[in-house]
């Protein structure tokens, strides 16, 4: 008995004669086999659709482009204002008659998924801490992965240092991407770096500080670049008898310690200042000089060494007065 095997055909057992399949049957079996192996039109369309979807997802992930616009809104009779930073996929300006366009991008930029930081920089305005605006003037936003149009809007509550602003550049805006490898924003170029510009001068007409309490802070202080209007309330008039307070003050006054020493004459003479310099400057730097000067001031004149005298009588730069009041005195009282 002989056994013959044919692919795709059942075994046939014959005794002596072998009956082979006809050529037509073999061709029909081959055609059926090829048809089974050939993908259907539905399979091809599904395959192309999935591939196209993956390409689009990758494109959306790495090529999402945005524009940035910055608007200023001033409030009459007060030196308060708001800056609105809008980041969106289109560059159409908003329709708001009360807002002034400060900056607008001309070219869209790619923002990859991750954390971005919006940062304002200027010496013409400060954070409005009365409404709990962060004094650093920085805000964070998370750009989500595989999410179309991560548009966002960040608003800053501000106070102008003077009642006039403009024309020209009044500050800068940076939008920076977080480097996940080291948690830093400074290792890469900013996504956006915009000059905040006014084409004309804007003046805030307000009544006198002595007649209008709108300029008086919650703590009772009045902060003004005009030295005659500057007031420090009893609540904020801390004595310099606490080492932690003196240490914090020295951080902001480290570059002013010689000027302060001369303004406090005859409490300190030039010989005293030279002694501070030779004893502390070389080894410990300006911060230690400022610390020792303030500490010695309290030892020599405890009734005079206080925040009110420091901020209102020594003719310090107005930005330092603001920083000391907001970042040192207010935080020290609340701690």
UniProtKB/TrEMBL annotation:
Death domain ranges (all copies): 256-315
Source superkingdom: Eukaryota
GO biological process, one term: signal transduction
Protein name, per record: Death domain-containing protein
């Amino acid at each position: 008995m002989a056994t013959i095997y044919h692919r795709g055909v059942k075994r046939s057992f014959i005794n002596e004669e072998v009956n082979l399949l006809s050529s037509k049957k073999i061709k029909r079996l081959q055609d059926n086999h090829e048809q089974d192996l050939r993908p259907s039109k539905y399979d091809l369309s599904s395959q192309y659709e999935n591939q196209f979807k993956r390409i689009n997802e990758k494109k959306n992930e790495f090529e999402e482009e945005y524009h940035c616009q910055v608007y200023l809104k001033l409030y009459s009779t007060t030196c308060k204002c708001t800056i609105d930073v809008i980041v969106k996929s289109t560059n159409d300006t908003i329709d708001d008659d009360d807002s002034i366009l400060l900056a607008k991008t001309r070219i869209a930029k790619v923002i990859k998924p991750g954390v971005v930081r919006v940062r304002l920089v200027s010496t013409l305005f400060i954070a409005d801490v009365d409404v709990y605006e962060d004094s650093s003037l920085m805000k964070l936003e998370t750009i989500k992965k595989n999410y179309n149009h991560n548009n966002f809007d960040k608003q800053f509550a501000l106070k102008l240092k003077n009642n006039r602003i403009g024309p020209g550049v009044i500050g800068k805006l940076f939008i920076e991407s977080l480097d996940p490898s080291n948690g830093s924003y400074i290792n890469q170029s900013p996504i956006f770096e915009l000059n905040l510009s006014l084409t004309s001068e804007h003046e805030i007409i307000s009544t006198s500080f002595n007649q209008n309490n709108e300029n008086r802070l919650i703590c009772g202080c009045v902060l003004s670049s005009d030295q005659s209007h500057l007031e420090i309330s009893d609540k904020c008039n801390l004595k310099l008898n606490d080492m932690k307070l003196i240490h914090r003050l020295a951080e902001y006054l480290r570059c002013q310690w010689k000027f302060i020493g001369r303004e406090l004459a005859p409490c300190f003479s030039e010989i005293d200042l030279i002694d501070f310099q030779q004893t502390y400057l070389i080894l410990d730097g300006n911060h230690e000089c400022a610390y020792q000067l303030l500490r010695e001031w309290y030892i020599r004149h405890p009734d005079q060494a206080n925040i009110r005298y420091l901020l209102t009588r020594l003719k310090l730069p107005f930005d330092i007065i603001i920083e000391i009041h907001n970042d040192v005195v207010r935080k020290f009282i609340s701690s």
